[in-house]
Amino acid sequence: MTQNSHQTLGEFIIENQEDFIYSTGELSRLLSSIKLATKIVNYKVNKAGLVNILGEYGNENVQGEKQQKLDVFANETFIETLSQREVVCGIASEENEDFIEIKANRNQVNSKYVVLIDPLDGSSNIDVNVSVGTIFSIYRRVSEPGTPVTLEDFLQPGNKQVAAGYVVYGTSTMLVYTTGNGVNGFTLNPGIGTFYLSHPNLRIPGDGSIYSVNEGNYVKFPQGVKNFIKYCQTEEDNRPYTSRYIGSLCSDFHRNMLKGGIYLYPSGTNNPQGKLRLLYECNPMAYIAEQAGGKASDGYRRILDINPKELHQRVPFFCGSKNLVEKAEEFMAQNPE
Ligand SMILES: O=P(O)(O)OC[C@H]1O[C@](O)(COP(=O)(O)O)[C@@H](O)[C@@H]1O
Ligand SMILES: [Mg+2]
Ligand SMILES: [Mg+2]
């Protein structure tokens, strides 16, 4: 792997494509298209209040959530940017009920990749100028190229991902991704419109003193989670830990990756499967966490080994520093649901 701190994302993608077992340059073109779509979304996010893109769009998505204008803009931007470049044969998105087969001139796009995407993560923070993100997950299709794309091409376990990443539109805009050879972070220089390698070889500290969970749901949590939160708050050893919760998965995950910590979105009496979606939120973040030395589970099972059944299925999510996730799992095992 070649790295120098002033390397651009474009150079990094090209210079490291040989590390990718299926390397033909196709994945590099796909990653470059995601980079382009990210810049277009970033341009809107940064001046959201000035360009009438705050507030609700007026529709509900398949999750029953009110779509924000920026959800729709980001969704359309990623779908258009990837489709026009014929770098994917199919796209599944949080904002679309079904997957989209990409056709060019009515013919099947001959790409071997499908992408699953959360175009705008942390939607509840858009209107209040708190950082939001984008999450993507890439697989090789399982159906034969040239044949219709199938649901099976998307319902693959996370351990089959060939690449995954997220973007944080925060104080600066960062894109963090992996193709299975470690995790690297790039910061956008808005003046030039170029991403530069700013965080090479990211590693999550094994331990940490930050826990991120919406404690407003405390009474609905499983006993194991309640006990883990009490453990974090107990004055003992290097505890109590610090509670930090932004309410944007990308931003909470990113902070915990840099500082050490755990993010939890457990099941609750109101949502037995939790809130986060396995395919385009938990799998990509779990792949990045593991590639950076961290861990991700649903409290019991490794997220990446879960066999998906539905496009928008949800799973409880425990992710971050290895020792903290294992501690939380200990409490879950002591109080099985
Ligand atoms: O407001 P809650 O229930 O704590 O949920 C916050 C979580 O939901 C999400 O906003 C879900 O993602 P979307 O915004 O993409 O739907 C996560 O980013 C975040 O961690
Ligand atoms: Mg999300
Ligand atoms: Mg979203």
Which helices and strands, and how do they pair?
Elements lengths: L8 H7 L10 H20 L10 E5 L5 E3 H16 L5 E4 L6 E2 L1 E2 L2 E2 L4 E9 L10 E9 L22 E7 L3 E6 L4 E7 L4 E6 L10 E3 L10 H11 L8 E2 L5 H11 L2 E4 L12 H14 L3 E3 L19 E4 L1 H13 L3
Helix pairs in contact: 1-2, 2-3, 4-7
The structure holds 1,6-di-O-phosphono-beta-D-fructofuranose (FBP) and magnesium ion (2 copies).
The site of 1,6-di-O-phosphono-beta-D-fructofuranose has 11 residues, from strand 7.
Summarize the structure.
Residues 8-200 form the Fructose-1-6-bisphosphatase class I N-terminal domain. The chain contains seven helices and 17 strands.
Topology pattern, helix = H, strand = E: HHEEHEEEEEEEEEEEHEHEHEEH
Rg, rounded, reads 19 Å
Q: Please state the structural category.
A: alpha+beta
The coarse overall form would be: globular
Sequence of strands across the biggest β-sheet: 4-3-7-8-9-10-11-12
State the helical fraction.
25-40%
* DSSP helical segment count: 7
Distance between the termini: 44 Å
Number of strands: 17
Mean pLDDT, all residues:
93
Which distinct ligands sit in these coordinates? 1,6-di-O-phosphono-beta-D-fructofuranose, magnesium ion
Q: Let me know the largest β-sheet.
A: 8 strands, mixed
Strand content: 15-25%
Poorly predicted runs are none
Describe what you observe in this structure.
The structure is a single chain. This protein is α+β, with helices and mostly antiparallel strands and 337 residues long. Helices cover 27% and strands 23% of the residues. The protein has seven helices and 17 strands. Strand 3 and strand 4 form a beta hairpin. The protein is globular and about 60 Å long. Bound molecules: 1,6-di-O-phosphono-beta-D-fructofuranose and magnesium ion (MG) (2 copies). One magnesium ion binds next to strand 7.
